[in-house]
Amino acid sequence: MSNQSNNGEPLIRVSHLKQYFPINTGFFQTKPLKAVDDISFDIMEGETLGLVGESGCGKTTAGRTILHLYKPTGGEVIYRGQPVRTKKDIEDFRKKATMVFQDPYSSLDPRMTVADIIGEPLDVQNLYKTKEERRERILELMDHVGLNSEHAARYAHEFSGGQRQRVGIARALAVNPDFIVCDEPVSALDVSIQAQVINMFDQLQDELGLTYLFIAHDLLVVRHISDRIAVMYLGHVVELAGASEIYERPLHPYTRALISAVPVPDPVRARANQRIPMTGEIPSPLNAPSGCPFHTRCPYAKDSCKEGIPELREIEKGRFVACHRIEEIG
After folding, report:
1. Rounded CA gap, 7 and 83, in Å?
2. Around 255, how many Cα atoms within 13 Å sit in the side-chain half-sphere?
């Protein structure tokens, strides 16, 4: 986790980003599925912003839209003060922004050797002059992520899940990026391996000055690696604050419910913890409720909560919450 001061311009500014997918509802009619619906946040250079929420809340779509793997429906991404809009902007941005995918089993080509998987971004971006330079860079990247040089000629299926994810991380580092979107990079791994990979992300950040957007549904993992955390629900960011603040004093009713469900290793504290139940199922983003997206499951909801989407506003320094009734329930 970075200790870098958050002064100056953000490295990445996400401004009113939207990602709607048209869904066919029959008879040549479509309806927008609002996977990401007007989210805004900054990521400072050298920091890790955690993005958490239940499955289907839009966090992976948000990460992919930020990298322009999906064309945004609305809003924009600003990198080092420059909007990423044109094809040329996107190409330049992709040289400095990359992604580590969730599933190391499906994100690596089984027909390619480890050296070719890691070397592919070097080939695409023409980042070497000679074959020898390419080989040296591949071995250097492998060393960064704790793989031996003799692994270079082997295939992905010959490795364990943790080693495959290290290959995926080495591939992401190949273009010498500033910014990496980590899309649930440890959720497919054994718990014993998760800690090793998380520690490696920390170490690489310190060594290479990386900035991360770290997407996960496991709140304990996110707390360990993040400087700040954004909580997503049904395509909206509902709370954004420092990692320890989110854990020790969650304010939004949804964040409170999420935190109350996190297992506590201390039995005395676990007994004292009041689990906050959430009623009902997550609504479909295809038929999102009017007003506050959480009002159908919120214990504090009133009729007024159905009337307008609450704005994500700063209620304390560096602390943003989207809730109509936050002053009453806070």
Report:
1. 20
2. 28
